[in-house]
Amino acid sequence: MNESLLWTFVRIFVPLSFVTIGGGASIIAEVKRQSVDVNHWITASQFVDLFAVSRAAPGPGSLLVSLIGFQVDGVAGALVVTLALFAPPSIVLYGVAHVWRRHRGATWQHAIERGLQPIAAGLVLAAVAAILRSIEGGIMAWLVAAGALVALRTLRVNPLVLLAAGATIFVIVEAYWTPT
Amino acid sequence: MRLVEIFEAFATIGLTSFGGGISGWMYRAFVERRKWLTEEEFLSSLAMCQTLPGLNVVNMAVWIGFRMRGTLGALAGFVAIIFPPLVVVLILGALYGRWGHVVVVHHALVGIAAAAIALNLNLGLQATVVAARNVIAIVVLVALFVGIGIMQLPMLPFVLVLAPISVAAAFLEERKL
Known about the structure:
The complex is a heterodimer of chains A (180) and B (177).
Chain A: H1 3-18, H2 28-38, H3 44-56, H4 63-102, H5 107-134, H6 138-155, H7 159-176
Helix pairs in contact in A: 1-4, 2-5, 3-4, 6-7
Chain B: H1 3-16, H2 22-33, H3 39-51, H4 56-99, H5 103-131, H6 135-150, H7 155-176
Helix pairs in contact in B: 1-4, 3-4, 6-7
């Protein structure tokens, strides 16, 4: 356990928790920037691995951040990061939910709701760019991602099946085909 | 309502939902099966939980728990939606620490990540279709994508500047209607 590191986690993830807009995917680009580029806790390749683990595991996808905390500083790191990211917004919700409900349908609520939509959309697309940049495997990764998107949109495949297919394709191709 | 029931309901959701889209699971569990909420209550709660900061699912767990059993219910929802899946994820993390350097494992994970990108991209495209309804929204969306996704600038200042602008624009637009 590294106390100054744990404080760094709090300093980075508590502010970030308040700009988790429209869901956990919105902060992935910043999580990558902080843990790979700024603080060098993990490599880009480890980031991609942990992203994959978090997607294949059950529960909120943002447990990716818990995995990074675990990788860097064990169980203590995982717990601190998890609470830093999940607890502050929950406390805010607990505090303001009643006021929010009382003014249900108010103009300012619609404005916040609609005004945050482009923020959330832009951030999710930024997350895609951040992961694509980190991922090695070049053209194969792009092909698998594109194929998965088509499968998702046309066949409504179960996400787990999709992830398993991605893993299988990569293992087989990497075993038999080495780009120079 | 016993706290154990709230805990069990959210732990089950946390442990059985994969690949995002947890709100669909919640709808089935709380509106259709347990009938804790009406459809209208569920949808307005979801809209609130998506708009306020935080993860939608965690917010929903806190809010539904609170509706059912006050402060303790909120706490039960919070703990149940996070910690059981966290245990699973950390076990996987420990396995990764042990076997992650094996080449085949790494290739499999890159393959999973590549496929998972599609889930995020799909989410982003759906959100873009909904969000891009006027010039300001499109400018905000593109600015965030380019600034954070391509140029890799820090996210906080970007959001702290653009979010108020975007909300103010939406407010003026609403007032005109």
